[in-house]
Amino acid sequence: MYISKISIEGFRNFPQNEILFNDGVNVIIGHNNSGKTSLIKAISLVINSETPRRLELDDFSKSTTLENLQRLPAT
User: Fold this and answer.
1) Taking a C-beta distance cutoff of 8 angstroms, is the pair 60, 10 a contact?
2) φ and ψ at 7, to 5 degrees?
3) Which of these, 1, 16, 36, 45, has the minimum number of CB atoms within 10 Å of its CB?
4) What are phi and psi of 57, to 5 degrees?
5) What is the pLDDT of residue 7?
6) 16 - beta bridge partners?
7) DSSP secondary-structure letter at 19?
């Protein structure tokens, strides 16, 4: 399988981002709390059928409020 890009919206510290991958091996580096683990978790939710699909409040973007999540559910 080859992933060329991933679009993440409203997940953890990704309010709305698109990450492009290069051919071959990609290395994910960054400072603490920059989103490395969040990126891996987002990819895992899509491609790993054994990953629990239950999201918690902390999995939603920090830029949204609980009231917005309750008022505007994802379609």
Assistant:
1) yes
2) -110, 125
3) 1
4) -55, -35
5) 92
6) 9
7) E
Looking at residue 8, its amino acid is I
Contact 4, 20 (CB under 8 A): yes
pLDDT at 75: 46
- Which amino acid appears at position 11 of this protein? F
> What is the rounded CA–CA span in Å between residue 9 and residue 61?
8
At position 23, the amino acid (one-letter code) is: D
pLDDT tens digit sequence for 6-51: 999 888 888 888 999 999 999 999 888 888 988 988 888 888 777 6
Between the alpha carbon of residue 51 and those of residues 20, 36, 42, 46, the distances in Å are: 23, 18, 11, 9
pTM of structure:
0.65
